[in-house]
Amino acid sequence: MIDYHTHTSLCGHATGRMEEYVEEALRCGLDEIGFSDHLPVKDGKENNLSMAFGDLPEYVRKVAHLRKTFPEIRIKLGIEADYIPGSESYMRDILSRYQFDYVIGSVHYIGTWAFDHPKERNVWEESDVDAVYVEYFELLRKSARTGLFDIMGHSDLVKKFGYRSKADLSNVLSDTAQVFKECDVSVEINTSGLRKPVSEMYPAKDILTVFRKYNIPIVFGSDAHIPEEVGRDFDKAVFLAKQCGYKSYVTYEKRRRSVCDL
Ligand code: ZN
Ligand code: FE
Ligand code: FE
Ligand code: ZN
Fold first, then answer.
1. Domain ranges of the chain
2. pLDDT band at residue 42, thresholds of 50, 70 and 90?
3. Is the pLDDT reported for residue 44 higher than 70?
């Protein structure tokens, strides 16, 4: 099993040493752990949301060093990149500077609204929830179409605080799955939703079922922001994957994908 979504203290809102994340992965019996800390955002200042631009070389060196320290487990160099329309060329440039194993593309912003940030939760109260969902999935499709990402992160993050669209999303979801297929991206089963107000896996079963229908590959991630969260609830994640009909998951090395039996 793999955990491809973990953070480090470099982003300013995760704690623990990277060694401890790897040690926890070993305790969980994982075959692979991938680090995927938040890529510095364009014009980003020290904001405690992502790494600082100057931290990237250290991050990359650290992963290389950990590979030597822990030869008993495969350690991947990933990154979680915010999709912000207009910053594509910045991202293309920065992502090309390092040999990442995979890039997770995540939508955390609708316009300038960080809709999943606890500090901006109040904005939900003044928003048209149905419209927010439509916009969110539109951004997901746009992010896949950039070709910058291998894995679509927590692909129904919009539900985090429990605000639900009352509209029928079936067309939106099948359109989204269709685009993911065309763009050859995978999705992650991200267990962190279980630890959030919505208390549900990202993505939910009905959405993952649609992805399965379109043969979208999956990876697994905990979105750990503390070492103890590595591999958290993976039994439930595997159960969900199998329930939705998945028989395999994928791994990445230098952005090339391989298939593993579930
Ligand atoms: Zn984070
Ligand atoms: Fe995220
Ligand atoms: Fe994350
Ligand atoms: Zn994330």
1. 2-261
2. confident
3. no
> For residue 261, how many C-alpha atoms fall within 13 Å in the half-sphere facing its CB?
0
CATH architecture of 2-261: Alpha-Beta Barrel (3.20)
Q: How far is the CA of 243 from the centre of ligand 2 (A)?
A: 25
3 alpha carbon – ligand 3 mean position (Å): 12
Distance 106 CA to ligand 2 centre (A): 6
CA of 153 to the centre of ligand 2 (A): 7
Which pLDDT band holds residue 49 (cuts at 50, 70, 90)? Answer: confident
Mean pLDDT confidence for 36-63: 86
DSSP-assigned beta bridge partners for residue 6: 224
113 Cα–ligand 1 center, Å: 16
Q: Residue 216 Cα, ligand 4 centroid: separation in angstroms?
A: 19
Ligand nearest the Cα atom of residue 14: 1
Model-level pTM greater than 0.70? yes
Residues 6+ positions from 93 with CB-CB distance below 8 Å: none
> Average pLDDT, stretch 27-44?
91
CB-based burial of residue 168 (10 Å sphere; 0-12 exposed, 13-18 middle, 19+ buried)? exposed
